[in-house]
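Maltose/maltodextrin transport system permease protein (Virgibacillus chiguensis), 431 aa
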Amino acid sequence: MAEEKMVSKTRKIQPRTLAVILSIIPGLGQMYNRRFLKGFIFLIISTAFLITTWDYIDIGIWGLFTLGTIPREHHSIQLLIQGLISLIVLAFGIGIYIYNFMDARSDAIAREANRPKPTLLQGVKGFYNNGFPYFMIMPGLIMLLFIVVVPLLFMFALAFTNYNQYNAPPRKLLDWVGFTNFVDLVHIDIWKDTFFSVFSWTIVWTVVATTLQIALGLILALLVNDTRIKFKRAIRTILILPWAVPAFVSILIFSALFNPTFGAINRDILSQFNVMLPWLSDPFWTKVALIMIQTWLGFPFVFALFTGVLQSVPRDMYEAADVDGGTRWQKLRHITLPHILFATAPLLIMQYAGNFNNFNIIYLFNEGNPAVRGQNAGGTDILISWVYKLTFESNNYNMAAAITIIMGLVVSIFAFYQFRKTASFKEEGRY
């Protein structure tokens, strides 16, 4: 009787369930479904993966949690990187293992439905039709993981360690410190004063400089697009010339022009009015100069962008507005601006995000100076240039990583919110 009960219980187990259970050992579920070649391939791949990566993953996971235990023998940074790579390799192996269960279950369901088992040639053909695109993009995805994802994870991990110039491996080992760096950023006086000063200037710089370059580009595009303007091609060419010159060359030239001693702006222009402004030594005037320079450097792109969009606005809409007695302002507000913003809103948002992290102009113009008493950043440093100084000049890697995370969150939240509000995002996928 006991044997009959065991047989009846065994019969109740569906093939798909049994295939999943057997797939605990990769390949056995496929072999149960009489897909012997596929099962053998799964078994070989899984075994090879374990043999080749087990030691690396084992040491990597251990190093990721401990960051080493013996100073001068263990290197915390190397262990951290190996641990992050181990996580990616382990995730890849888990993905194969999960796919092993899914494939066995899928074959078992097909077997229950008495669907014919595909031949080897049919299987290869099915893989070519369905999986070939994924197979071709796999090398690119793997490169993306190790070139982009690993450095980002490494930076993120450093923000939760005590890695600085006084605590650097291999002389000393790193420790996980949790959110201590973020707390210090808003509680310790020198960090708090510097962070809020730099962060507020970064916001002002981003909003004012970007808005001015967009406004100037829009005004010039509207003027050049006016039917009463002649020589449009020549004017457009001249206005785009600042964009043609490499930005770093223009910035270095402006740095010389704004020099308070020998610069042409003070010596040849402002001196005529008995005015000499401290462009490079006073934080306020340095910020004013930076905003003017960025407006000059940024408006040609916006001008070219708006000029192209204005060419696509249907003329019959303006003609209909004229018939209805619409004013220039009404046509601008209800016809021109909606068309421009619908087509360019994502790019305009990226202008703000780009200026938020515009390292070149800040560093090349005056290296973020002048110095400010009681702060460890210059008077015109934005977050990205401050992070550069913390990393390459004072070796405060942990604080630089913490600030970088905050920067990434600010830009991501702002960009996501603005993209969600744009009409082009809302209309995407409807056509």
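The chain has a mean pLDDT of 87. The domain at 183-425 is CATH 1.10.3720.10 (MetI-like fold). ok done for today
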